[in-house]
Design goal:
Layout: E1 3-11, E2 16-24, E3 27-32, E4 42-45, E5 50-53, E6 55-60, E7 65-66, E8 69-70, H1 75-84, E9 87-94, H2 102-113, E10 120-126, H3 132-143, E11 148-152, H4 163-176, E12 179-183, H5 187-199, H6 208-211, H7 214-231, E13 234-237, H8 243-254, E14 259-264, H9 265-269, H10 280-283, H11 295-306, E15 311-313, H12 321-324, H13 344-354, H14 360-374, E16 392-396, E17 401-402, E18 421-422, E19 425-431, E20 434-438, E21 441-442
Parallel strand pairs: 1-4, 1-5, 6-9, 9-10, 10-11, 11-12, 12-13, 13-14, 14-15
Antiparallel strand pairs: 1-2, 2-3, 5-16, 7-8, 16-19, 17-18, 19-20, 20-21
Helix pairs in contact: 4-7, 7-8
This protein binds zinc ion.
Zinc ion (ZN) is lined by residues 59, 61, 93, 315.
């Protein structure tokens, strides 16, 4: 059925105007004033509402075997939670372990998502080793439309990649015109500092941050940037958490390294005192890089407002309280992650735009447009134009509410932002022309999501 979204205020990364949007099949076919609706058109009144392009979360984990367990969301629950929160596309980390076959892993991740996702999705291909076989497989994966890699400098012995493999991965990435995303913490330092703290009887979640301090992340950023410089490859630092790491990244950009920066919503909103809460409470707030000293937050918000931080993702990785308890007597065994796929957009809108820390257009840019541009989805995704996919968020900026595990759609038994106020909410969300969320509730097609083949910029 054709769809007409009337009287809304369209907000993109660089435009703001009132107009109607007409949608046929999956695509925006007309934008203008007082558009007529042919018979049989579904009309949505967006008076007093913003109409944003569907938001893109560039960093999520859905299927995630980690530390001997699995993250709680499935593609079904994770994608519906994403949509309710205004996210119409996510890019999932495909993370086979180092001993596993890259291509088999890739097929497994795709198969998990296929037919189970309510929103659109793509993957960053995790590279955990590099031999002749891997190289041929990565070429095949890129040819399949997955044009971005993910490397971990952290997680020694699990996902972590050595320097030789890093160099070869980036060299291939350069040749293929593929961007490489990186978790930048020095693995060896983390391993040594974890062992030292544990040997001193410092075993609780409050020791997670001291085991991987800010300078360890800054070193990781510098190291990654050096390898980008040597290979001429394009890089993207994921979940940058602190001022020293930001300074390392900006220094690299200044000397001409092609490097972009992502931060994630937990680092903008939460600080390390959450992980210092007693008993199992602290474990809920363990992720890597860790939540930092609060003084870092202002630096991140300012860099975001300036555009030095390009994108805001989540690093969504939901483990419930029972799984977090696996590490109660050894913080290195706490599964890492803070769930946020559902709350990213509302938190960024509230504590950015509504509270005066972020321009409305920069908000759309950081939560949608930049990710679309960087990862080969633009202009199908990331904007509101004739010809773009009709992924739209009719957003109520008057809504007042509070986040809670009791009302969330994410399949996990806590919310890291429990009790936090929000000043806005998606009312209607469409995915390629189909209403997936109405009155803030998921009402749509559970299998509408499709795998996005991406174009490489070369
Ligand atoms: Zn991650």
């Amino acid at each position: 059925m054709p769809l007409l979204i009337q009287n809304g205020e369209i907000i993109t990364a660089d435009k703001r105007y009132k107009a109607d949007i007409y949608i046929e099949d999956e695509t925006i076919t007309e934008i203008g004033e007082n558009l007529n609706a042919p018979e049989g058109t579904e009309v949505i009144d967006a008076s007093g509402r913003y109409v944003f392009p569907g938001f893109i979360d560039p960093h999520v984990h859905i299927y995630l075997p980690f530390m001997g367990t699995y993250a709680k969301d499935t593609h079904e629950t994770g994608s519906q939670a994403a949509l309710v929160g205004g996210t119409t596309t996510f890019i999932e980390m495909c993370c086979p372990a180092a001993h596993e076959d890259a291509l088999e892993g890739y097929r497994l991740w795709k198969q998990k998502a296929e037919g189970n996702a309510a929103c659109d999705y793509a993957f960053h291909m995790g590279v955990t080793r590099f031999d002749e076989r891997t190289e041929a497989q990565l070429r095949e994966i890129v040819a399949d439309g997955t044009g971005s890699f993910k490397v971990f400098l952290a997680y020694k012995g699990a996902f972590g990649i050595g320097d030789e493999a890093l160099y070869k991965t980036l060299t291939l990435a350069r040749e293929l015109g593929v961007i490489t995303t990186a978790h930048t913490e020095n693995a060896e330092l983390v391993a040594q500092m974890q062992a030292k703290l544990l040997s001193e009887g410092k075993t609780g979640p409050e020791w997670h941050e001291p085991s991987r301090p800010e300078f360890v992340e800054a070193d990781g950023v510098h190291h990654f940037a050096t390898f980008l410089e040597a290979t001429g490859a394009k890089g993207y630092v994921v979940h940058l958490s602190c001022k020293p790491a930001l300074e390392a990244a900006l220094a690299a950009k200044k000397r001409g390294v092609d490097l972009s920066i992502e931060s994630v919503i937990p680092h903008l909103m939460l600080d390390k005192s959450y992980a210092e809460r007693p008993d199992s409470e602290g474990a809920k707030y363990v992720m890597s890089p860790p939540l930092r000293d609060k003084r870092n937050q202002a630096a991140l918000w300012e860099a975001l407002a300036r555009g030095d931080i390009s994108t805001i993702g989540t690093d969504h990785a939901p483990f419930d309280t029972g799984q977090k308890a696996m590490g109660l007597t050894d913080f290195t065994r706490i599964p890492n992650g803070i769930p946020a796929i559902e709350d990213r957009v509302n938190l960024l809108y509230t504590y950015g735009v509504s509270r005066g820390n972020l321009d409305l257009h920069r908000f759309v840019d950081a939560a949608s447009t930049q990710a679309a541009k960087m990862f080969g989805l633009y202009p199908g995704k990331g904007t509101v134009e004739v010809g773009s996919d009709a992924d739209l968020v009719v957003y109520d900026p008057e809504y007042q509410g509070t986040l809670s595990a009791k009302t969330q759609r994410m399949n996990v038994d806590y919310n890291g932002f429990e009790g936090v106020d929000i000043d806005g909410k998606p009312e209607v969300v469409t995915l390629r022309g189909v209403v997936q969320v109405r009155d803030g509730q998921f009402v749509g097609d559970r299998a509408r999501g499709r795998f996005l083949r991406r174009e490489m910029s070369g």
